[in-house]
Design goal:
Helices cover 39% and strands 25% of the residues. The protein has 56 residues and is of the alpha+beta class. Strand 1 and strand 2 (13-16) form a beta hairpin. The mean pLDDT is 80.
Length: 56
């Protein structure tokens, strides 16, 4: 299943083949995982934000 990272403060998305690859890229090359939301590709941004809120 494909995943993407979406930046929290600007309209930027990057797709990856796996969740681990998306998280690793965000953590090592894109300013840290805290700046990004990792979601399944094809999921709406609003759904991703509500999932983040539920996790804490």
């Amino acid at each position: 299943m494909a995943y993407k990272i979406m930046h929290r403060s600007r309209p930027q998305e990057i797709r990856f083949p796996t969740q681990a690859a998306a998280e690793r890229y965000a953590d090592q090359f894109a300013g840290g995982l805290g700046n990004w939301t990792v979601v399944e590709a094809g999921r709406a941004a609003q759904s991703a934000e509500s999932a983040e809120d539920q996790r804490g």
